[in-house]
Amino acid sequence: MPASAVPSGASDLSRTRCGMATLPIATCQFSTSSDIATNLAAVVAQMRQAAAGGARVVHFCEGALSGYAGADFASFEGFQWNALEDATQVVTNLATELGLWVVLGSAHPLTPPHRPHNSTFIIDDAGQLVDRYDKRFCSGDLNATEGDLAHYSPGDHFSVWVIDGIRCGALICYDYRFPELLRSYRADEVEVLFHSFHAGALTSERIQAIGEAIGHDYEELNPAPTFTYPGITMPAAMTTAAACNHLWISCSNSSAPESAWPAFFVRADGVTTGRLERNVPGVLFSTVDTEQALYDSTAPWRRRALAGVLHSGTVVADPRSSERQRF
User: How many angstroms separate the first and last alpha carbons of the chain?
Assistant: First the structure.
C-alpha cells in the first residue's frame, strides 16, 4: 500500500515517526551523459535491478535523467525539454509497475529567461510526484557567471516526505558545504537523507591540477578515492553529518570517468556500510533500521542544541565562571 507523503517545512520539532522501522534503499551510480535516452535506459535498468533486490526506494545522482549542465553538456541552449518530459513519464510509469519509490536527479524548466532548477524529484510507488527539491546552494560567483549559477536558478525550500513511516529529506551536491541545511532537516525529525551528487566527468588533467593545488605533500594525510577536493571533503562531510545529526545518508554519484568517488551509504552513527566501485555503474543495497541500537553521543543534548541551548548540563552562576580575564 502506498505510504503517506508529507511535504513539510523545517521548523516543527513536534513531529514523530510511526510505523515500520526499516527501509531498504538502492543507491545507484551510472555514467551520466548529455543524451537523455541513454540516461533513461540506465535509470530503467537500475530501477528494475533495485526492485529485484528488494529495495523500497531507488536513489539516483544529481542530473541523472537530464544530465548535468556544465559537466555532461555545455549549456541548456537547445535543450530537449520535451524529450525529458517524455523520459520522466517513463520513470513514473515504471515506478507504478514496480511499486518502487524513486529519488531522481534531473532539471526542471522555469519561465524564460529564468534558468532551470537543479532538482531532485520524489516519485512515490504509485507514480505520483510527491515533491521536488531544488538545489539551494548552487556553486558560482556573485555575478552568476560560473559554476552552477551560470546554468541554474537556486531553490528556496526544504523537501520532507514519509516512506513507510520514516521521514526523509533531500539535498544536492554543493549543499553539503552548508551544515545549516542538515541541522534544519534534523530539527524536522528527518531520519534518512538522500544526498545526490555529481562529482564525475573529471578529466585526468583536471584531477592532476586539483591535486597540485592541494599539494602532494599532504596526500598521505588525506586518503581519498581521488586526491581532489571532492574526493577528500564530500565523503568526510557525509560521515560527519551522519554522526553529528544521527542521520542515515544515501550518497549517490555519477560514475562518469573520472568520478571523484563512488556512491556509498552511511549509517546514523557515521559508519560507512557500503561503497561501490569508482567509475563503474552499480547499485548499492542498504537497509535503514531506525530502531537499531547505534552509538549516538549527542542524543541527550541534540534537541536542546537545535533549539538554541548551546551547552550541556546546567550553567552555574559563579563569579569564577563569569570573570574570564582572571586565572
Answer: 65
What's the pLDDT score for residue 214? 97
Exposed / middle / buried, residue 89 (Cβ in 10 Å: 0-12, 13-18, 19+): exposed
How far is 135 from 119, CA to CA, in rounded Å?
Answer: 6
| CA gap 62, 234 in Å, rounded | 14
| 170 within 8 A of 196, measured Cβ to Cβ | yes
Average pLDDT for 105-111: 98
Cα(268)–Cα(190) distance, rounded to whole angstroms? 12
Averaged confidence pLDDT in the chain: 93
**Total count of residues recorded for the chain:** 327
Distance CA 288, CA 267 (A): 8
109 φψ region: left (φ > 0), alpha (ψ -120 to 50), beta (else): beta
291-312 pLDDT, tens digit per residue, is 999 999 999 999 999 999 999 9
Give the whole-angstrom CA distance, residue 17 versus residue 22: 12
pTM: 0.92
CB 253 within 8 A of CB 225: no
Instruction: Identify the structural domains of the chain with CATH numbers, from first to last.
Output: 22-298 (3.60.110.10)
Distance between CA atoms of 199 and 31, rounded to whole angstroms? 11
Pairing label, strands 272-275, 264-266 = antiparallel
Give residue-wise pLDDT tens across range 126-184. Answer: 999 999 999 999 999 998 889 999 999 999 999 999 999 999 999 999 999 999 999 99
